[in-house]
Amino acid sequence: MSNHMSWDFILPVCLGDLVKSGAVNQYVVQDVLSVKQLPSHINSFKAALRSQGPLCILEYFDTAYSVLQHCRTVDVAVKEDTLELLIQVVRGLSVSLPTLLLSGSLSAVDRKQQLNAVKMSVFLLCKLTETLESDSYRETIGRKKDKVAGKGLLQWDSERETILQCLTQLLQLDIRTLWSLSLVEEEFVSCVTCCCYKLLENPTISHVKSKSTRDAIIHVLGIMVKKYNHMLGACVKVIQLLQHFEQLASVCAAAVASWSSEYGVKAIVGEIMREIGQKSSEELAREGSGVKAFSSFLSELSTLVPETMIPNISVLLTHLEGEVQSCVLYRIASVLVRVLSGDKLDDSARASRDRFLDTLQEHIHDAHSHVRARVLQVYARIVNSKALPLCKYTEVMELTVGRLGDKSVHVCKSAIQLLAAFIAHNPYSCKLSSVDLTKPLEKEMAKLKEMRDSQKEQVPVITAADLWDAMKPELEMTVKAQLEPGSEEEDNEDEEETGGDEERSDRDTALQIAQKAVGLCMRAHSLFPESSFFSDLADLNAETLIKTLATLFKGPEQVTPEAVSSDAPPTPQKEGGGNEGGESELKKQEMLVQYLKDTESFALQVERSIAVINNMLYWKTTTVVQEAVQFCVTAFEFSVANSVCGVRKMLPLVWSTDVTIKDSVIQAYRRLYLNPHGDNTRAKAQTLVDNLSDLMIDASLGTVQCLEEIVSVFCPYAEREVVLSNLDTLCSVALGEKVAEDYLLARDTLITIANITDHVRVCVHILFQSDPHWQTFMEQAVRLIYFLAESPDQLCSRLLQRSAHLLLEQITEGGEPNQSQLQESGSQGSEEQGNDANDSCVEEELGLVGASAEDTEVEFIRKICETELLSGNMLSAFLPLLVKVCSSPGKYSHSQLTTAACLALSQYMMISPAVCKDNIRLLFTVLEKSPLPVVRANTIVALGDLTVRFPNILEPWTPNLYARLSDESASVRLTAIMVLTQLVLKDVMKVKGQVSEVAVLLLDPEPHIASLALNFFNELSAKDNAIYNLLPDIISRLSDPERGMKEEDFNTIMKQLFSYITKERQTESLVEKLCQRFRTAKTERQWADLAVSLSLLSVCERGFKKLQECWDCYSDKLTEPGVYQPLLSIAAKLRRRAKPQFKVLYLCTFGWKTAYCSVQDLVTVYASVLKVLDDSDLVTPRKSRSRPKPAITFSSDEEEEDDAVMAESETPKVTTPIARTRRTRLRH
């Protein structure tokens, strides 16, 4: 074997270099075998491996090399055999080398032999692996697998892992000693690492099934980085992989994290970060997908090893204005959450934390909306992890509340999420009510003031002992100086001095005083040596002199404290201790007051945000509405003041057509009211009942209906047995002796019984006592009679007879009641009968229709309703009375009587179309002229039901319904918008230009009405082209001079309505329609409104071309600034995103034409003025006579005229029958 060691194996750059003659003693392949020769030589290779071991590679290198050369044409079995032989060679070297390397007796020839074997085997194994990997990938992409190749490729996934394990075993050994000076050549390192990087380029390497292979590759590369000086090469290669393979971001992050933590090469993180940080924004912009890969890589890395990124994160802060902003922000968040959090940070860590938080705070107002949203999301993550310092809460909270008004929907959504996180993880209290915090704060502030005042009254006492301890060091130095030889004469000379420098410093002055004191003490001792004060100076030295001076300065009471009597005042030391305790209590009180102040400030900011977020409940963006609902729930759970307003305001969303919004509201109420707390079942049930009862307090009719819808989802009607099992309890409690105490409970009990069964016998108690809820109770009682009894007419007749008998007894005993009371009694009875007849018949009819009954049955029921039900029986007798009461408001002025009569009349009209036609004019007269808001509101609801029942009869009266949207009463406007919303959205009523009245309600002073109007347009926008078709008519009506709408209000309404126009085709068509309306517009204000409307459209290039085509429509109006400026703004907005050719051909031309036209018109006007001024016969123009406006009067003053019905000529005529359509066509 030694004969072979006259050469060295040099790893080639290219595979073909091995067949070329190179340098002296360089190995060259002598014989490249043909494909036919390969099987026999492979068999010889196997035999040699068994007999000679791994060093046989030195002899059979050419055989394996030939397989590489013919890899595309050779049989798969040959490649598999070669791969298996190379694996065995590498394993053999891994087993034999440790003993040789540890022996230390390896000769130079043997070292070269082992080195050549290592290089040859690793080179062949890596190259063959790369070739097989390429073949595997190529066959997968081309989908051209043959049967043989397919069999081999199916095993390749497991073979890859085996190869990597072999390389790991070999490279873990200290084979560097085989090289001269342990310097491993770069070509060897590149051979191994290139093979690993080639395997990483496989598209499936990031899949879960490839985890073991992925980990093995990372392990091999980690060894190369740590032992073979591959760190810089790895940095460059990671950057290249990220630029070309976006899917490798997570893999590379895991690799770098492993090399940093498991292999201890922490510097590689900084190197890669610097490489990315040095890239300019232009480079990142050109790379495209590479930017996403960098962002994902850095984000993953910050999650895995955040602590190693802190020293190098500054190099990435420059990219906060570039393409990787979100990534940098995410990294900052990871560092703050996982490293720079907690109370045990040192000063350096705190400074870094504050610097990062300041950086985040600066970008809350970033110019890019996605960055603003990302910053808020980062803050939410920090708050959820409880890593935000308490000192930053107020500041960040205030900035977040400000972002609720951001123009970006994503920013608003992120702001709501952050505010909810603030509330859920607040460090202050579980109840955030500023009202509840006011009194405790005032109490503690008063207590703090008293403590501060008491501290000011105490004069600080400085004891003699404290002064002595302060002076002692200086005195010791002075005493030592005085006791030195020759110092006495100097002291005497100093004492005789009468002057001195007046500007001597305090220290010098103190030193002079000390010297004089020591000199005086020594002179006094010399004059009075027998005095007891100088008894310690028998032996004069520094220590005894200091002791004597201390006795003279402190006094005897300090030297012998035990001699002080027990009734003496406290010593200075004890007073000092009391002061320290007082200061400690004062600091605690100051901290408590500051805590309460911060809590109150936090609660006030939360309350301020609630008012804004409540208005977002009716936005058209589903995700924002969902976040607003969740925020309201969180705020309510923490008892934030006014949070119940949001909980109630979300109730109407249960009728939303968006399933996700409806589900969010239902789940919110389930979480708030159906999650009872208690130790046992009874306690939980009681809590549940209390929650639902609190919800019903002061609930309006609309709120009750919404709650019924929610409860119907929670508890389906199928669970009737629960009520049936408790029927006796219901009757005894609600319909027993105490029925007069709560008629609402009795009424709802009757409704419940009617809903659960058809065969229940119950007693009805008739109590004629004054109670506001008695009327509704009796209504439901009579309804239950009609629902259950076999002959309800006869039973009700007996009830009326009994009532009449009681009335006669009252007349006999107490005198005749007044006319209003008598009419009220009659109207109540008629109302009950009307309700009963309507309910029984209409419900039957609707039930039959819903069940698809036969047409004959439907016709039979209709005939009964129209001919028999209201003729010849008890119900027919009350109809004239109802008409009389409703048509004579001056005579019958009692409010409850009028209300009951109108409702009863509407119920009669619901039964028969003939009755409806005869009395519809009367009902609309009541709607327009009744002075009672409750009557007008009830009439609107009744007319809504009639519109559903008889749409063709009500169609001519549609403008009268829309007119109530401008009613002076807020309750009437609220009822009108709710009724019209249901009629329009359910396609019962055609949407016409009168919908402009709904648009005006967007600015209603009542927030609830404005939110319902906004919800109306949000729902209407879901219908195809509905708002698009209505916009021109709405603009014409709102810009009508007779309406007199303010310009600011018009702009606000139009801005909201044009936000629903998102399709390019609709925009283009609207541009043409609005331009054409310039021709018919007569006033400058109408021109300006049309121009503003055009500027609110998101005009594209096609729409702008259409604007230029309609130049003649508005060119003569350009002298008006209200027209000229909005049209210029259209071009300005389009110029930002238009193509260069379009800018030159259209935008520049348009700007020149508008400017020229406006100047020309001004010149024309100026010339006409000059011509008029030159005329000699100037005549003062006459004033135009103002025409008197006709006074608007109402029929009857309610007290003088009994008949207040519209004239026949005022009755609108039916123009076209209503056709029920679900879809509106796009009109051009």
**Topology, number of strands:** 0
Class of secondary structure makeup? mainly alpha
N-C termini distance = 94 Å
Low-confidence stretches: 143-154, 487-503, 557-578, 759-769, 811-853, 1141-1147, 1156-1205, 1214-1228
Q: Count of helices? A: 54
The proportion of residues forming helix, as a percent range, comes to 55-70%
Overall mean pLDDT stands at 74
Proportion of β residues? Answer: under 5%
> What is Rg?
48 Å
Tell me, briefly, the overall form. Answer: extended
Strand count, sense and barrel status of the largest sheet are: none
Domain Condensin complex subunit 1 N-terminal: 78-234
InterPro entries: ARM-like, ARM-type_fold, CND1/NCAPD3, Cnd1_C, Condensin_cplx_su1, Condensin_cplx_su1_N
Subcellular location: Chromosome; Cytoplasm; Nucleus
Region (Disordered): 482-508, 557-585, 815-838, 1180-1228
Which SSEs are present, and which pair or pack?
Layout: H1 38-52, H2 57-69, H3 76-103, H4 108-142, H5 147-154, H6 156-171, H7 186-200, H8 211-227, H9 231-244, H10 249-261, H11 267-277, H12 281-287, H13 289-304, H14 325-338, H15 347-362, H16 369-384, H17 393-402, H18 409-424, H19 434-457, H20 464-483, H21 487-496, H22 506-527, H23 542-554, H24 556-559, H25 572-615, H26 622-637, H27 643-649, H28 659-673, H29 681-696, H30 701-714, H31 721-724, H32 727-734, H33 743-756, H34 774-788, H35 792-814, H36 819-850, H37 855-868, H38 879-887, H39 895-911, H40 913-929, H41 933-949, H42 951-954, H43 958-963, H44 970-985, H45 996-1000, H46 1007-1021, H47 1026-1038, H48 1047-1058, H49 1064-1080, H50 1084-1096, H51 1101-1109, H52 1111-1114, H53 1121-1135, H54 1140-1174
